[in-house]
Amino acid sequence: MPPKTGFSAVFDAPALPVMLTARTRKLTLISLFGEIQKPFVREFMNITKALADENRVRTLLALRKGELCVCQITELFGLAPSTVSKHLSILFQAGLVESRKDGRWIYYKLPGQDAPVAVREAIDWVEKALDGNPRVAEDQRALKRIRKEDPAELCRRQCRK
Fold first, then answer.
1. What is the DSSP string of 106-125?
2. Domains and CATH numbers, the chain
3. Which of 8, 67, 123, 144 could cross-link with 109 by S-S, CB 3.0 to 4.6 Å?
4. What does the alpha-carbon distance between residue 146 and residue 151 come to, in Å, rounded to a whole number?
5. Highest-confidence range of 10-24, 26-40, 99-113, by mean pLDDT?
6. Per residue in 66-75, pLDDT tens?
7. Residue 10, SS3 per DSSP
8. CB distance 37 to 118 below 8 Å
9. Running DSSP on this structure, what letter comes out for residue 14?
10. CA distance linking residue 40 with residue 92, whole number of Å
11. What is the pTM of this model?
12. In the structure, what pLDDT confidence band is assigned to residue 48 with cuts at 50, 70 and 90?
């Protein structure tokens, strides 16, 4: 078996099965369930770009327990709201998150079962690859505290910084 490289080597994760056929030069994604998918290259690139940043991957993992508003995500990572918004925009463009607006608040969540197979499997892969990671566990502990706080108060506090 060849040695693991890149993301799989660092996190001892199974590789996301991708095959570029030499004859046709078309990208073929083989699902974990043995289904052959042929996503558009742009969609594939959007997903891989979204997964190429630690904060975006941490955001996906934070959303496993339900939706979060932008203020809660900002509080979790301690980043500027504009930075968090940019990360969320990239995740949204890739189809890895869904959003809804409720008054002043924008809430994000993971997509449902009606999401494309490539999106669902990318999220599953991230979850399996980082299961038990200390940083992820630390984020989950912080999220328990953050979820108890009023989002309006979080926003006011962040605006004063």
1. EEEE---TTS-HHHHHHHHH
2. 41-160 (1.10.10.10)
3. 67
4. 9
5. 99-113
6. 999 999 999 9
7. helix
8. yes
9. P
10. 17
11. 0.74
12. very high
Which two structure tokens, joined as six digits, stand for 125? 């892969």
- Order of all β-strands in the sheet with 105-109: 68-69, 105-109, 98-102
Task: Mark out the alpha helices in the chain (DSSP H runs).
Answer: 6-11, 41-50, 54-62, 70-77, 81-93, 117-129, 134-148, 151-160
Evaluate whether 96 touches 60 at the Cβ level (below 8 Å).
yes
Q: Which amino acid is it at 93?
A: Q
Nearest-angstrom CA–CA distance, 30 and 12? 20
The two tokens of residue 153 are: 């108060």
Handedness of CA 142, 91, 102, 81 (dihedral sign): positive
Q: Are 13 and 129 in contact (CB under 8 A)?
A: yes
Q: For the segment 140-157, what is each residue's pLDDT rounded down to a tens digit?
A: 999 999 999 988 888 888
Band of the pLDDT at 23, cuts 50, 70, 90? very low
Tokens of 83: 């930075």
Q: Which residue do the tokens 């912080």 mark?
A: 142
